[in-house]
Specification:
Elements lengths: L19 E10 L2 E8 L5 E4 L19 H22 L3 H14 L6 H18 L3 H7 L7 H14 L2 H17 L6 E6 L5 H12 L10 E7 L3 H18 L2 E7 L19 E7 L9 E4 L15 E4 H11 L4 E7 L8 H22 L6 H21 L12 H11 L1 E3 L4 H15 L5 E6 L4 E6 L2 E11 L1
Parallel strand pairs: 4-5, 4-7, 5-6, 7-10
Antiparallel strand pairs: 1-2, 2-3, 8-9, 10-14, 11-14, 12-13, 13-14
Helix pairs in contact: 1-2, 1-3, 1-10, 2-3, 3-10, 3-11, 5-11, 6-7, 6-13, 7-8, 9-12, 10-11
Protein name: DELLA protein
InterPro entries: TF_GRAS
Organism: Triticum turgidum subsp. durum
C-alpha cells in the first residue's frame, strides 16, 4: 500500500452526461437513492447518484461545546484503563483489580460514548482475569453467548446506523458487474462466504438486470450463501426470489447451512464447470486465522539436500488456496482494517481501544437520524462487546476476532495464488460519492482508493476502518 495516497479523494469527474435509453431508480435507504442509466451510444451502464445531501444524514453542531469539564474525566478514564491493562500484562492482578474498581465507580454502560467504551473494555479485562478459572466463569455464566436472533438484529441495526458495510457492499457489486460485463457463460455463480447483508444482493440484482446486453443475452444468476441459521437462509431465499421475479432475472438459490468455521472444504459450495464464478467474503476470513496446522513442504529438499521442515498455515490460508484452484473470475474480500492479531497483549489492547472508540463515536452520532438509542445500545451490547471480549480476554485458539490489516491480507492472498484485480475508476468514484452523501457536511465517512485501484479503504474521520480488495487468479 502507498501511505501517501491515503486520504486523497478522486478529483476527476465521475461520469460525463450521456444520452439515456433506460433508467431505473434504486433506493439505498436513509434518503439516499440513485438512477441506473444506460447509454444509447455504446451500451455502457452508469449508476448515477444525485449530488444532494441525504435528509437523514447526521449533522454536527456548528460550534463545539466547551470541553474543559468533560475532557479531563475522559482522559483520566482512558489512563486508568491503560494502567489496568499494563498491570494485568505484568501479572499484577491485585493492582488491576483496584484500577477496575475505580473505573466502575466512574464509568457506566449508559453514559457518554467514552464511558460506555471504557466500561466495555473494563468488562473484557475483568473477564481476562477470571478466564483461567473456567469453573468460576461457568458458575457466573460469563460471558454469556448472545442469542442468535439478538445478534442478527444487532448486525442489521449496525448496517443501518453505520454505513461501512453498505459502502463495502456497493463497491463489491460494482466490481462484480465490471468483472462479468463481457462474460457469456450461461450462469453467473456468486458465492457469499457469509457476512453480506441481503440488501447487497438486492442491489446486485438491479445492477445485473441493467447490465449491458442483459436484454439480448439470457444469463442465470446463481447465489450460494454460507450461513448457519435456517431462518436467515429461508427468509433471504424468499426475498431474493421475489425480487428476481420482479426484475425478470433467472435466479437459483443454493443455501449452505454451515458457519464459516465449519467450512472445511469447498465441496459444499457446489461449484460447477462452465460457470462464471465470483467469491465474496465479508468479515469472515479473519475468524479462520485462529486454527493452525502443519503443512508438508511443497519443495521436498533445500539446496543442501535436507528435507525442509513442515510449514505452519492457518485454515484461512488453506481455504484461500482451495478457492484459488476454482479459478474464480473475481474474489472480493472485505475485512476490518485493524491489527488485533498481535502477540503482544498491550499493543492489541491499545489498537482495539482506538478502533472500537471510533465505532462507539460513529454509533453515537447516528442517533436519532439513523436509529434509536435503544438500537445503538443493542449494537454495543450484542455485537461490539462480544468482539471486545474476544480480542481482550481470549488467547490462543479461543480468540477468533483476529483482525489484520490489508497489507497482511494481500500477502496471504498472493501466497494462495491470487493477484490483484484493479477496480475501475468508476467503482471507486461512485462509492466515494455515496460515502459523502451518507456523511453529509460532516464528512465523517469517506472512501479512498489506493494502490492504483487495487483496494479501497472506508474511513471514519481519519481512521481507516474497513478495506475492500478485489482479486483474480493468475
Amino acid at each position: 500500500m502507498n501511505p501517501d495516497n491515503r486520504g486523497q479523494e478522486p478529483t476527476r469527474p465521475v461520469y460525463a452526461p450521456v444520452p439515456l435509453r433506460t433508467a431505473l431508480s434504486v433506493d439505498f435507504g436513509n434518503g439516499v437513492n440513485g438512477t441506473f442509466v444506460r447509454s444509447n451510444i455504446d451500451g455502457t451502464m452508469t449508476f448515477l447518484l444525485p449530488d444532494v445531501r441525504s435528509a437523514a444524514a447526521p449533522t454536527r453542531p456548528t460550534a463545539p461545546a466547551p470541553q474543559n469539564q468533560d475532557e479531563e474525566p475522559a482522559v483520566h478514564l482512558i489512563k486508568l484503563l491503560y494502567s489496568c491493562a499494563a498491570a494485568l500484562d505484568e501479572g499484577k492482578k491485585e493492582l488491576a483489580n483496584k484500577g477496575l474498581e475505580m473505573i466502575c465507580s466512574l464509568a457506566t454502560d449508559d453514559g457518554e460514548p467514552v464511558h460506555r467504551l471504557v466500561a466495555s473494555f473494563a468488562d473484557a479485562l475483568a473477564l481476562r482475569i477470571v478466564q483461567p478459572w473456567q469453573g468460576v466463569c461457568r458458575a457466573l455464566q460469563l460471558p454469556t453467548t448472545t442469542p442468535a436472533p439478538a445478534a442478527a438484529a444487532a448486525r442489521r441495526h449496525f448496517a443501518v446506523m453505520c454505513p461501512f458495510l453498505r459502502l463495502a457492499g456497493t463497491a463489491a457489486n460494482y466490481a462484480i458487474i465490471d468483472a462479468v460485463q463481457t462474460e457469456r457463460n450461461a450462469l453467473l455463480h456468486v458465492v457469499d462466504l457469509g457476512g453480506a447483508d441481503p440488501g447487497q444482493w438486492l442491489l446486485l440484482f438491479c445492477f445485473f438486470a441493467n447490465r449491458p446486453g442483459a436484454s439480448t443475452h439470457h444469463q442465470i444468476l446463481r447465489l450460494t450463501i454460507v450461513n448457519e441459521e435456517d431462518g436467515f437462509l429461508s427468509s433471504t431465499a424468499a426475498l431474493l426470489a421475489g425480487e428476481a421475479e420482479h426484475l425478470h432475472i433467472g435466479f437459483q438459490f443454493h443455501p449452505v447451512k454451515l458457519h464459516i468455521n465449519e467450512l472445511l472444504s469447498i465441496e459444499p459450495l457446489d461449484v460447477r464447470s462452465g460457470e462464471a464464478l465470483v467469491v465474496v467474503s465479508t468479515l469472515q476470513l479473519h475468524r479462520l486465522l485462529a486454527d493452525e496446522f502443519a503443512e508438508a513442504a511443497t519443495r521436498p529438499h533445500d539446496r543442501k539436500g535436507k528435507r525442509q521442515a513442515h510449514a505452519t498455515m492457518t485454515r484461512a490460508d488453506a481455504l484461500l488456496r482451495n478457492l484459488a484452484e476454482l479459478s474464480p473470475k473475481l474474489m472480493v474480500v472485505t475485512e476490518q482494517e485493524a491489527n488485533h492479531n498481535g502477540v503482544q497483549f498491550t499493543d492489541r489492547f491499545g489498537n482495539a481501544l482506538k478502533y472500537y472508540g471510533a465505532l462507539f463515536d460513529a454509533l453515537e452520532e447516528s442517533v436519532p437520524a439513523r436509529g434509536s438509542a435503544l438500537e445503538r445500545a443493542d449494537v454495543e451490547r450484542c455485537l461490539l462487546l462480544p468482539e471486545i471480549r474476544d480480542i481482550v480476554a481470549c488467547d490462543g485458539a479461543q480468540r477468533r476476532e483476529r483482525h489484520e490489516r490489508m497489507v497482511d491480507w494481500a500477502a496471504r492472498m498472493e501466497a494462495a495464488g491470487f493477484v490483484h484485480a484493479t477496480m475501475s475508476p468508476g467503482t471507486v468514484a461512485q462509492t466515494a460519492i455515496l460515502a459523502r452523501m451518507l456523511a453529509g457536511d460532516s464528512r465523517a465517512y469517506r472512501v479512498c482508493g489506493e494502490n492504483d485501484g487495487r483496494c479501497i479503504f472506508i474511513y471514519r474521520d481519519d481512521v481507516p476502518m474497513f478495506s475492500v480488495s478485489t482479486w483474480r487468479t493468475v
